[in-house]
Amino acid sequence: QVQLVESGGGLVQPGGSLRLSCAVSGSMLKNLGTMAWHRQAPGKERELVAQITDGFTRYADSVLGRFTISRDIATDGAKSSVSLQMRNLKPEDTALYYCYVMGINYLRGREFWGQGTQVTVST
Predict the structure, then answer these.
(1) What is the pLDDT of residue 66?
(2) Beta partners for 3?
């Protein structure tokens, strides 16, 4: 069973920075495809913030140039992590941020989500 554990959320002032991390365990790297961060603000639908697939990245227009997604792979391939560096945060970035992994190969067709970590941007 793939497990995703997020960390790094919190309260930050506008213009500040935060780094979210998501530790992924429970499956060999060869079974993990796209990794991403989504977010959901109160009263709004969940939206894609950033994703990384085979080293290629894609960002929502609202975070382009401010957020950076990256992926770390353990040398044994048994664990990996995906991070989201957030800079110049704005109040509209306030949301519950979820880590996401798409399964491939043995885990094809399955999707995995973290429990969410709260990011609040406020004075």
Answers:
(1) 98
(2) 25
Contact in structure between 117 and 20 (CB atoms under 8 Å)? yes
Handedness of CA 96, 97, 102, 107 (dihedral sign): negative
Q: Within 10 A of 54 (CB to CB), how many other CB atoms are there?
A: 7
Residue in the structure block whose two tokens are 């109160």? 42
What integer pLDDT is reported at residue 37 of this predicted model? 98
- Sorted by sequence, the CB contacts under 8 Å of residue 2 that are 6+ apart come out as 24, 25, 26, 27, 32, 101, 103, 107, 110, 112
Q: Are 95 and 106 in contact (CB under 8 A)?
A: no
